[in-house]
Amino acid sequence: MITGGEATVARATAAVFVDGGRAGSAVLVDPRYLVTAAHVLQRSGLGTRPEVPVEQIELEFPGLGQRGQPGMVTASRLDLGPSSAGVDVAVLDLGEDRPDWLPAPVPVWSAARPPHTVKVFGYPLAERSRKGVWRQFEVQGPASPGTVQVDWTGDGGTFPGHSGGPVIDADGHTLAGILVEGSERGQFDRFLPVTLIAQVWPRLPRPWLTSGNNPGEARSHFTRRARGQRSAARGGDLFRGRRVAVDRVRGWLTADAPPGRPLVITGQPGAGKSAVLARAALSLEAERGVPGLAFHARAATLGDFLTALADLTGIDTPGSPGELVTRLADLSGQPPTLVVLDALDEAASDLDREQITEALAELAVMPGMRVAVAARPLTASNPYARGGLLAALGVTTRDDHNLVDLDSDTYFDPDGLRQFAAALLARDGMDHPGPDGAWTQYRARPALRDWLAAVIAERAGRNFLVAAMAADPLSAELNVIDPAIGGFDPADIPSGVGEALRKYLLHLPEDRRERVRALLTALAYARGAGLDDPKWLAFAQAMGYSVTVLDLDVLRRSRAADYLLQTTTQHAGRPVTRLFHQALTDELLAERDQVPSDESVLLDMLLGQAERDGWRAHYLREHVAEHAAAAERLDQLLEDPHYLLTVDPARLVPHLDAARSGPARAIAAVYRESARYLADLDRPARASQLELTAHHLGLRGLAARIASAAPDRPWQTRWSHGLRATGHWPPDPHRPRRRSVRSSGGSPAGRHPRRRQRQLRPYGAGLAAGRRHPSGGAADL
Q1: What is the pLDDT confidence band of residue 234, given thresholds at 50, 70 and 90?
Q2: pLDDT for residue 594 is more than 80
Q3: Rounded to the nearest 10 degrees, how much is the dihedral formed by the CA atoms of 502, 508, 511, 517?
Q4: Neighbouring-strand partners of residue 90
Q5: What does 562-621 look like in DSSP terms, one character per residue?
Q6: d(CA 254, CA 663)
Q7: Nearest to 118 by CA among 53, 79, 162
Q8: What distance lies between CA 353 and its chain's CA centroid?
Q9: Interacting residues of 507 by C-beta distance below 8 A, sequence separation 6+
Q10: What's residue 776's pLDDT?
């Protein structure tokens, strides 16, 4: 999601003057337009005459004029037409001759669901020097008519003069709405959400919602792919050609009639699937049309996808694709919602990929949805075979109307590939091309540049990634490649991802070559967003390589870093690194004949870290199950009750089928039966839940281990009679369901007792008994 910051919001907020007196606040949402509350723009009537609206308004941006003086500007009120009747919003137009000192606009909240916590900024009437006042609130929910209620979190709310000021989400600092009402007596305020403002004023520049396993980095992913960037630092737009493919995606997403199927963009690794999809999506976003979701599915779970759709549409988060469709059906009659999903083949697990695919297919059937997805076929034989990924998305032949195969003659753009190679050689379009190198000569000698670009494109076949891996390093060389000089062999240009990687390594000094290969190979085993530096080194060292922090620094500073590595900021603000493209991972691991044993030593390292430091590390909680399943050692992981109480169920459940032994399958059955309820519980309440289910399935040893791992659990199970664990959970829905547990008082984790009952009743059949805890009483559920 686009972020700004409190300073950006404060600069973009103006004090509103009506008839020379301050009346409220307004916020800049576009280089030309501001929004405010309509009631701010009222002139007091005379006698019994009502207040009348004002058409010309003065605005003051404190400290933004010449020499730090207040910047004053005049604005006119837009006529919003009959749709604005009864809605407390007004739009102010600064006109074409607006001053150049105006600040940057505030980015707008992209979801339909409001944030959980918001901040409000404005200029109270009682404030003599316009410094502005911030207030923070907790969002409670919708109020009438169309407003959202927020409750005070401190001793006071907003003041007169805050009206019309920006309401921003407390984390990302994007505009969620404008303040329209305050209530000192009720200790609540209300704001008008951007969704309602957009209905009244469709030109409100709302961005698409970008999300994924790491929502904070999803925007960067789509922006970089749409611009063909190797390096975010260099910036610029290097996307070239592929107009037929981009137009096809745009046309599908904007079609008047519902297509009924997802559009599938596919091709070989490196064909440019992500770039084409992102280019189409961001061009539609720039046109400020209908709302949309751009979802990056790499390492994402079904829950991540369903949550993103709920945020986009404003529905409650569904628990399944079927529930999603049911809830979205209530939104009929609204403009189509656009959904694009990239890297479906790289979802968190096979199960997540299957479930997300099911959700996409169901969404595409709905009249109000338009869906496009980019994915590799994931098969070396017939990509359209029944049971494959493309067939699940409705593509069964190469001629299907919902297929964009970037390797086909219809969509492959040879001129675009040559232009892309030429742009990289000359670093054409980059904002910051870097220190002088051969690229300056390629810029000065376009004929030479175009000749070499044609050679690169010919060698790359139809692969944009290979072209980039060839052209980008050549642009950084000290000397150009000139056929007139002689000695040039086109075979020196790589013709595949593996060859490009090998040629890069062969050009390194021998003492560095093995260390770089070691670091890249270790990174190929990384899951999710990648590894921070300590874990990257730990991966390499666990595999027997001798590498240091210096080796990491040298690799990052190398010419190859831009097309080999991708570094993002993950949780807790720590940078993490992964390979730039899945094709690089495939190549590096294809050369390994000991993948299971590699995974096993990595698992030993991760489990050792957990034994020393607990399960606090984010990477451990998110991805250790993937490593354990790949090492064929999930049984060992399931034996650790501390892990079961800590892991996100969405990260473990997809791998439970990898359990092998009878005891491990029984533990998997306990966890699978409880999983849907565990995500919303804290660790002690999870222990109570798992202990109950373990007793219910007759696994008293597991129940005892869980109890020992969490002595602070809020309620305890003494005994239970019911199903026996078989590795699966087939509860009979017709048998009576009754349980008893003992409680330490109150509801689990401070939750309402009724919610606890809803969590426990669905758990199969049988009878359980509880005993009274010294601090509480038995609960018969």
Answers
A1: confident
A2: no
A3: -40
A4: 36
A5: HHHEEEEE-GGG-EEEEES-HHHHHHHHHT-S-HHHHHHHHHHHHHHHHHHH-S-SHHHH
A6: 53
A7: 162
A8: 16
A9: none
A10: 35
